[in-house]
Amino acid sequence: MPVLKLSIWIDLPIDECFDLARDISLHPKSVPHTKERAIGGVTEGLIEAGESVTWEAVHLGVKQRLTARIQSMDRPYQFIDVMGKGAFSSLTHVHLFAEERGGTRMTDILQFEAPLGLLGRLANKLFLERHMRNFLKVRLENLKQIGEEKPLTSY
């Protein structure tokens, strides 16, 4: 099961970074290359513990839906979302925040399992891990740029 860990330093207080990362209205702007949009559950504003959102997006050329629920939240240090429905066998996304050098270190840890057993493990190695790492990298860079009011990065 792949586990990806990426982080970025953002010149914002920890509370603001925490809210930036859980703002459903901002999420599509952080990953414009996927044409992501909230279509169910919480569809705008700040998502809270116990709430869920259903995203529709294009990944690897295929329109997909994924429903994630905020499993736990410790404001402003972490929240964890877990896939309830979607293309993966499982997906857990841990969002961590730490005060650092007058700003915030935002870290994403994504653990996922592709379906289809051996074929899924092969897909992980051939393209899925790279795709998901690039997705997280663009998301983190764009959240930094949104928070610091800079132009966005494209995929």
Automatic annotation (TrEMBL):
<protein>
    <submittedName>
        <fullName>SRPBCC family protein</fullName>
    </submittedName>
</protein>
<dbReference type="InterPro" id="IPR023393">
    <property type="entry name" value="START-like_dom_sf"/>
</dbReference>
